[in-house]
């Protein structure tokens, strides 16, 4: 075999391996579902409303901490002074990033003052969530990214 034919075979082999790798990746990445962020156009069209809601929520100074584990969502609510926020209505909506078209909406029940819990799917991975809290006539919204373990 001549040095020229060796180089030609090496280049053709590398190009062929690249094509095979791209086909494998394309097949593995296509799980048949739409992976576009849900309602992305509506979110963009109502950006000013979202900013106003965010400013109102920041003025309240409340904080929501969410944990997803074992098929449950646990929330801890605190007011601006750090005190537990009992008696609130809490809803969590969102989706797992790997399954963006599979949204969920869960109402959480109070388990103790400032602590709320609800059931969800048992999937590991990152979730994009929106926690909505209504208490004593006030409305609070917080966007979170949470990893379920």
What does this structure look like?
The protein is of the alpha+beta class and 149 residues long. It has two domains: 1-30; 40-148, Immunoglobulins (Immunoglobulin-like, Sandwich), CATH 2.60.40. Helices cover 32% and strands 42% of the residues. It contains three helices and seven strands, in the order H-H-H-E-E-E-E-E-E-E. The protein has helices at residues 3-29, 40-45, 47-60, and strands spanning 63-69, 72-78, 89-96, 99-112, 115-119, 125-135, 138-148. It has a seven-stranded antiparallel β-sheet with strand order 1-2-5-4-3-6-7. The radius of gyration is 24 Å and the shape is elongated. The model has no long low-confidence stretch (mean pLDDT 89).
Quick summary of this structure?
With 149 residues, this protein is α+β, with helices and mostly antiparallel strands.
Q: What's the total number of strands?
A: 7
- The total count of helices amounts to 3
- Estimate the mean pLDDT confidence: 89
Structural class: alpha+beta
CATH architecture of the largest domain: Sandwich
Using the CA coordinates, give the radius of gyration. Answer: 24 Å
């Amino acid at each position: 075999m001549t040095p020229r034919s060796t180089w030609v075979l090496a280049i053709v082999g590398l190009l062929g391996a690249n094509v095979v790798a791209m086909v494998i990746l394309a097949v593995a990445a296509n799980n048949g579902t739409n992976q576009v962020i849900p309602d992305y156009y509506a979110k963009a069209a109502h950006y000013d409303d979202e900013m106003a809601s965010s400013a109102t929520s920041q003025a309240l100074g409340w904080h929501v901490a969410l944990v997803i584990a074992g098929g449950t969502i646990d929330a801890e609510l605190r007011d601006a002074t750090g005190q537990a926020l009992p008696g609130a209505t809490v809803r969590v909506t969102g989706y797992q990033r790997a399954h963006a078209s599979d949204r969920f909406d869960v109402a959480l029940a109070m388990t103790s003052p400032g602590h709320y819990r609800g059931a969800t799917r048992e999937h590991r991975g990152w979730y994009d969530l929106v926690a909505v809290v209504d208490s004593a006539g006030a409305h609070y919204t917080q966007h979170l990214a949470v990893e379920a373990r």
